[in-house]
Amino acid sequence: MSDVNVEHRLEQFRSNVRLVREEVGRVIVGNDAVIDGVLTCLLARGHVLLEGIPGVGKTKLVQTLADALRLKFSRIQFTPDLMPGDIVGTSIVREDEAGRKYFEFQPGPIFANLVLADEVNRATPKTQSALLEAMQDNSVSAGNATRPLEQPFFVLATMNPLEMEGTYPLPEAQLDRFFFKLRMGFPGVDELHTVLDRTTLAAEPRVERTLAQGEILEMRETAREVPVARPVQDYAIRLTLATHPESELGHEMARRYVRFGASPRGTQALILGAKVHALMHDRLHVSGEDIRAVALPALRHRLLVNFEAEADRIDTDTILQRILADVAGPA
Amino acid sequence: MTDTSRTVLQALGSIADRLRTRQRVEALALALAVAAPSVLVAATLSAILARTSISHWPWAGAAILLLLTALWLLGRWRQSVAPEEAARVADERAGLEDELKSALWFSRQPAPNAYVTAMMQNAASRAARLVPRDLVPLAMPGSAWVALGSAALLAIVVPLSPRMSPHGVHDDAGAAPVAETTPARGGAATPAQAALEEAMQAADEASRARLEKLMAAVRDPGRSAEEKLRAVEAAREIAGRSALEAAASREQMRALADSLAGRKGLEEVAKALREGDARGAADALRERLARQEGGDQGGNATGASQPQESAASDQGVMDALKDSLQNASSGLGTPGETEGRLSKAVQNLEELSRRLDASAALSRAGRKLAAVSTALKRETTLRAAQFGRQQGQGNTGDSPDTGDADLQGGAMYRLGALARERRDGGQESNRAGDNTGNAPGDPVVGDEATRIQAKYKRETVRGQEADGNDGTDTAFYAASRRGEPTVELRAVEARYRHVGETALSPERIALRHRTQVRQFFLENAESAR
Fold it and tell me: Do B88 and A331 count as a contact with CB atoms less than 8 A apart?
């Protein structure tokens, strides 16, 4: 690929990201970091878990993103009686013209580019695993056939930290499948004013469709091409190992409060997220700052804290912040 | 190697050179900052320990420190700066966010792809714009400034301090304290010893014996400065007494001169006596004797003879001189008797002259002793001031039962203050007692005084008479103590939080019971199977 092509693709990447940001920003007020996080996941071929109290705009954000991207969108409201077949689809008996009966696969809502799994922790583990398998393998096994999912395949799962009664918290192994875990905070006074101004009038803001499927795939390829120097990669590895209590590089906080540290998938998320972050900030090289910027959403759901951390009310964010502060940057 | 890689490496090389220059400047400054104070401290310590066997240790220590510093400096001087370090510094100071670090790594990798090439081009264009002089300014480290400042302060303070100065006290009298290292003349180690030796040489036998004892005290290294000061003062007293005796002799010489006034042939003698010149008077008298005898050899023989009573006092010599001169001048007796008297007078005058010379020498030694005494007193005063400061500090130990507590007045003071506390309406008393609790105490400083844990609580016992009526109440003070919580608040909060955590968990099973519950159900499942 020539230098001219590289420059062109980089310029296209930046302008596309700017467009999507602008469109989403017309509906979603504030939460720029969350919007950037969702875009990073989309472009790094990951899936995102959104956590926030009810009413802060989790579902609205996903819907707006779906509106802004010219992609097939489906929404699955997870409930305790939801079955795997309701997600992946089912084979139904059909009859041809000759009167012979045969099974025909009826694809479920997961056969879309953008899937909103709303309140994912309300479904049973059996149903959750159907979604999570699709997330990991980008394919669905139904009946005797394995059907690939159309790319880009991007799952946004939402989760409510309150109302834990009657829910099925995602196990750590399944949480690990999510590229980022993003937290949507409560808006401030000014942001609430803007929300009210936008949503309590007769006409709500509309979002233009900006990016097509091919453009997103091209952006994904561009993101993967960003070079990462070995010192930066080494920094990502040291950060990951610092979360391991049994590792020689384990941080003091990890030794005290962490039962299991982040997986290699977490390191992959750090590097891929950092690549997209670097491109989004007009850079063609990945820096330690990019790694730090994505470290919290990439690792916070991959640490399993022990009882002592629960008793001392130490969450994974606190541990990671201490690790980020203490681990030396790229050498 | 591509052009972009070469550009990046060149830029990093120039930054590394600049870093190495700064490293050398810093190392040099630090070495100087270590060397200067160490030399000063060594000089000071060496002066303090001058008369001990370890006086050369500070210099040895300083030499070792200087050697180590030199080795360290040599190591730092030869230390090179790696390109990685230059890239790190450039990235940090130019805000390049690890771009040069990445470019350096990729410049060493073979066959870069298009994205790496584009990245390298970006890095090279940025690296070419970097100015090493702006990125790495030459500046001394803060620690070097601090060390050099300390050295300068030491250099100013040490000469000003009489105790710490390596040169000791050089006051106008030329005296120095006992600690001076330069040996004085005559083999004496200190000015005090030199002055005492001079006094001993000038003194008579009786005084010399006493001065020898004092000299032994001054020479003894085991004696304190106060003891040496007392010895010097005693020597001064001996010198002073000698000076007084000399003054009295001169006065009597003037009186004798008045009594000889008008006596024929003795005018020159009277004149010399009036001027206090005993030797001149003896010479004049000897001439008169020679003239009178006309070549008689007796006078010469007697004039050269040594005084018979060399150990006699000034007053004895003076009385003998007065008698012999007045008898000779009266003309009574035979000429032979007169000659004998005059010869005797000459002998007395020579003895007196010798004594006056010795007294003058002793006075000079006394003046030197006075200067030494002043220096010693100053030193002793400094020590006394330090001792006074130590005495003024409070007790470090807390011993209220013995009354030796850090609180003014001791334990009884506190009891007295507390006994009055309730009567004064709850406010800490501003009048407290001595050991009996009656004398007024110092006022309490500040708006509110801190109460002491041990208090006297006023208890009242209701009196009751035999017929059931209320009698006289009896009040007394009973000791009470403030209660301390048996469980810390943190522990209570932690327990409460733990209960809360347990209640909020989805399973509603206490954390500590989860393992047992899980084990129970697992075993049930096994048995059911």
Answer: yes
